[in-house]
Amino acid sequence: TQLLEQSPQFLSIQEGENLTVYCNSSSVFSSLQWYRQEPGEGPVLLVTVVTGGEVKKLKRLTFQFGDARKDSSLHITAAQPGDTGLYLCAGPNAGNNRKLIWGLGTSLAVNP
Amino acid sequence: DTEVTQTPKHLVMGMTNKKSLKCEQHMGHRAMYWYKQKAKKPPELMFVYSYEKLSINESVPSRFSPECPNSSLLNLHLHALQPEDSALYLCASSQDLSGGENNEQFFGPGTRLTVL
């Protein structure tokens, strides 16, 4: 059974700090997606990583896909209150790529 | 247009009511999804449509009935729901189901459903 484990589960930091959240699995994924979700809203796709070792940047957010395609990280530089939200990673089920396997999320609070 | 829209935003219904949730996308996507999400949990897949045909039904109770009238629209018909069905219902779409970035899912804002 493929699982995605996210850590930490909760993170509360001050504006301007840096942080990293992790999405780990013992299984290989063909790709991984990162979403941010605000309360009462749908998840917003941030990035898809496909190639092992790939690094993608989205302004202050840096996403990395592990060389073995079993893990990914999201690093935020100089966090802003607007970065507050639930960060979810998801990847296609190897047995049925029509389904996504989801991590449980990292709930981030950035305090002014 | 990269938006998925959902109506209504909020819905309160009794256990004997019949209501429908609506979802629309104009990105030319050929796969559409319904998810249910409880607080502080990831979305749970309910149904997947591919090219307007039901591709996946995740053993969802028959009180939830999906419908895909055309490639841009997805409905979820609700009847005789239970209070435990209260949740955020999310619609999503993707280019298709062929894999890689074509499976990237774009979500609507959701319908907050409360069953009394």
Description:
The complex is a heterodimer of chains A (112) and B (116). Chain A is an all-beta fold. Chain A is built from no helices and eleven strands. In chain A, strand 4 and strand 5 (44-49) form a beta hairpin. The N and C termini of chain A lie far apart (41 Å). The relative contact order of chain A is 0.33. By secondary structure, chain B is mainly beta. Chain B is 0% helix and 55% strand. In chain B, the strands form two sheets. In chain B, strands 2, 4, 5, 6, 9, 10 and 11 form a seven-stranded mixed β-sheet that branches. A four-stranded antiparallel β-sheet of chain B has the order 1-3-8-7, with no helix packed on it. In chain B, a hairpin with a 2-residue loop joins strand 5 and strand 6. The relative contact order of chain B is 0.32. Classes of the chains: A mainly beta (112), B mainly beta (116). The A-B interface holds A 30-31, 33, 35, 40-45, 48, 50, 86, 88, 90, 92, 96-100, 102-105, 107 and B 4, 6, 31, 40-43, 45, 48, 50, 55-56, 88, 90, 92, 97, 99-101, 103-110, 112.
What pattern of helices and strands is seen along the backbone of chain B?
EEEEEEEEEEE
Strand coverage percent of chain B: over 45%
**Multimerization status:** heterodimer
Which overall shape of chain B is indicated by the principal axes computed on the Cα atoms?
globular
Instruction: Provide mean pLDDT of chain A, rounded.
Output: 94
Uncertain parts of chain A: none
Decide which structural class fits the backbone of chain B: mainly beta
Distance between the termini of chain A: 41 Å
Major beta-sheet overview of chain A: 6 strands, mixed
What pair of chains forms the biggest interface?
A-B, 26 and 28 residues
* Averaged pLDDT of chain B: 93
Q: Helices and strands of chain A, in N-to-C order?
A: EEEEEEEEEEE
Beta-strand percentage of chain A?
over 45%
Number of strands of chain A: 11
Distance between the ends of chain B: 36 Å
- Contiguous low-pLDDT stretches of chain B (5 residues minimum) are none
Number of helices of chain B: 0
The total count of helices of chain A amounts to 0
